[in-house]
Design goal:
five-stranded mixed beta sheet, zinc ion binding, protease, aminopeptidase activity, Neutral Protease, domain 2, 18 helices, 34% helix, 659 residues, binds zinc ion, Immunoglobulin-like
């Protein structure tokens, strides 16, 4: 068996279909940002200076991506030059063409400065009102640039194929955080350099010395405080958490124990952490997502504050991106699975290292449900069921966003691990893969070529034969509702949860619940994922009678738990049949939980704290609307201002209030 020649399939494609920039002719190596934040008019104004490497002789212009930016000037080496902002492409935005001096030679550098400000239509920035924060005293700003929104805050060659270092100087009346290392004022010094928060201007300086893809450029600003986690003496990096003062104690408690420990464990599996700082930022309750792996600064939803450290595993996923995605980066959207598939695979290896092999497999079982749903959702667009998606130029990568790159990708790598001889044999390859490509960006074909190259050297014919047994076409380009291989997982942890659910299902015929033998001890020894699987399994049966749902809630404390993942699944059980008595009774409790007014929240620091993460608030509003439309709309009207604009738009659509 010999190494097959690389096939030039669609998954070889190098050119990024979602950018209009000419990054193959000339590319940014460093960008210096100089920004001022204006919370009154909700704009960023300033400049970006690109240090560009010429890659092609006589290149005439540099083309940047922009989206809804107001460009006032462009300079080459400090002198104003002519520029042209082209009409807007619906997905890719407006290409900004800046003229370059003639006679540039490959290998030369040129500095180009663009002066601009953002506009009201900026898709990357969310300016929260005071009411949308936990403290309710100051506004808050945060960005989301993945996949192609960096161009909405800075003119940039907005492709993961262009990795840039950056420095930034940002002036603001509120503390500023960036996806980089703080230079001044010090993170652990007095908040806002001891000046008056919300009033005095302070200039924050940051530096990102490691080249990163543009989608990891990130900013947040608000009334935030820092608390460092205990340091490992033998580590060069530091780790800590940022949050509003109202959340900092709980946030610190939740994450201080495990974050640095996880990062250190990951270093043993892969390679040393390269970014110097690994901080978490707890966003206000209206943050509509779970997490985002911005360099040096993972953004997190406060729904992870379970009060028992049970949801801290989400951090494992985000910090794993430091190697897969932030370190080894996909060349462009078609190869996005290299980021998420690898991250999900390694995240689960870490679960095996930290807990047991059964925990690792249990995560695949939970993921299988999400994968099935995504594959079904795309039944009419089978192209998005593929692992490697052949995007047309200008096609929106967000259209394809789903669990598929995560779950199908992780299963492909797990399958490779198994055919190549197991985890022990496989991990040295993983390290070699990271060492080979860290700091670079790659296509699926480059990944596969390296894979074959590595195993040809470490194992020879036998391993190549194993690799050739993989149905590559089915894994990379296959469509349909099934994985190419029926994957087997260790079911130990799932079976306990399934068994308990079956007992509850069987108990429905006993009308007097006081006769039932369930006790709080049933859940002893269950981790939160097992409780989730137990509740998801219960939903697969017919609606339990009201008395049983009440009993379930009272016995296991499900309607009062601060663990949002569990409480959400409990309401799904209570509202399984929206015409049932149970649904009528629990609809109000469920929707009041979402807006922070549930009985259990009263008088606690959770009072008024919305559950703005879309994973929870949208399905609850949808279900409650089916049970009692008036109730859903009334609660919504009273609280909608506290939700993020993206969530607001989608919930209004769900409630039939859209225009
Ligand atoms: Zn991810």
């Amino acid at each position: 068996m010999q190494v097959p020649a690389p096939s030039r399939g669609s998954y070889h494609s190098m050119e990024d279909p979602a950018t209009q920039s000419n990054y193959l002719q000339i590319a940014t190596e460093h960008v210096a940002l100089d920004w001022t934040l204006d919370f009154d008019s909700q704009l960023i104004s300033g400049s970006a200076t690109h240090h560009l490497l010429v890659k092609e002789d006589d290149v005439k212009e540099v083309i940047f991506d922009t989206s809804e930016l107001d460009v006032s000037d462009a300079k080459v080496e400090g002198k104003s030059v002519s520029f042209d902002l082209k009409p807007k492409h619906e997905v890719m935005g407006s290409a900004l063409h800046v003229c370059l001096p003639s006679g540039l030679k490959s290998g030369q550098y040129v500095d180009v400065t663009v002066e601009y400000k953002t506009t009201k239509d900026c898709t990357a920035l969310q300016w929260l009102d005071k009411a949308q924060t936990q403290g309710k005293n100051f506004p808050f700003l945060f960005s989301q640039c993945q996949p192609i929104y960096a161009r909405a805050i800075v003119p940039v060659q907005d492709s993961p194929s262009v990795k840039v270092k950056y420095s930034a100087k940002v002036t603001s009346v509120l503390p500023v955080l960036l996806s980089a290392i703080r230079q001044s004022p010090p993170s652990n010094g007095p908040a806002h350099d001891g000046k008056v928060i919300g009033k005095d201007l302070v200039t924050y300086t940051y530096n990102q010395p490691v080249p990163i893809p543009s989608y990891l450029i990130a900013i947040a600003a608000g009334n935030v405080r820092y608390r460092g986690f205990p340091q490992f003496e033998d580590k060069q990096w530091t780790s800590g958490i940022w949050a509003e003062p109202e959340l900092i104690d709980r946030a610190y408690w939740e994450f201080s124990e495990d974050t640095a420990k996880f990062l250190a464990a990951e270093e043993k599996i892969v390679t040393p952490y390269k970014f110097g700082v690994y901080d978490l930022l707890m966003l206000p309750p209206s943050f509509p997502y779970g997490g985002m792996e911005n360099a040096c600064l993972t953004f997190l939803t406060p729904t992870l504050l379970a009060g028992d450290r049970s949801l801290v595993d989400v951090v494992v996923h985000e910090l794993t991106h430091s190697w897969f995605g932030n370190g080894v980066t996909h060349a462009h959207a078609s190869h996005f699975w290299l980021n998420e598939g690898w991250t999900t695979y390694i995240e689960r290896v870490l679960l095996e290292v930290l807990y047991t092999p059964a925990h690792r497999d249990f995560s695949y079982i939970i993921g299988a449900k999400a994968l099935k749903k995504s594959l079904t959702d795309f039944e009419n667009e089978p192209k998005y069921q593929r692992l490697v998606i052949d995007f047309a130029p200008g096609e929106d990568p967000d259209n394809a966003f789903s669990s598929i790159p995560y779950e199908k990708g992780a299963n492909l790598i797990l399958h490779l691990e198994r055919v190549l001889g197991g985890l022990e044999v496989f991990l040295p390859y993983v390290r070699n893969y990271v060492e080979t490509f860290i700091g670079k960006n790659i296509t699926t074909q480059e990944w596969k070529d390296h894979l074959y190259g590595y195993w040809a050297k470490h194992g020879g014919a036998e391993k190549i034969k194993a690799l050739d047994s993989v149905d590559w076409n089915a894994w990379l380009s296959g469509e349909g509702l099934k994985l190419p291989v029926e994957m087997k997982y260790n079911l130990t942890l799932a079976q306990q949860a399934y068994a308990l659910a079956a007992q509850w299902d069987a108990a429905r015929s006993t009308a007097d619940v006081s006769q039932l033998k369930f006790t709080p001890a049933d859940l002893e020894g269950f981790n939160s994922n097992q409780i989730i699987v137990f509740l998801e399994r219960l939903q697969s049966y017919a609606q339990l009678p009201l008395a049983h749902v009440r009993h379930l809630s009272a016995l296991y404390g499900l309607g009062a738990t601060p663990n949002a993942e569990i409480r959400f699944r409990f309401y799904e059980v209570a509202l399984t049949d929206t015409g049932s008595e149970s649904a009528k009774v629990f609809a109000s409790e469920a929707v009041n939980w979402i807006v922070g007014e549930g009985g259990i929240e009263k008088g606690t620091d959770r009072e008024g704290m919305v559950v703005g993460r879309m994973k929870f608030c949208r399905p609850v509003f949808r279900a409650v609307c089916q049970v009692d439309r008036e109730l859903a709309r009334k609660v919504w009207e009273g609280k909608k201002e506290a939700f993020h604009p993206v969530a607001r738009r989608l919930i209004e659509k769900d409630l039939g209030l859209g225009h």
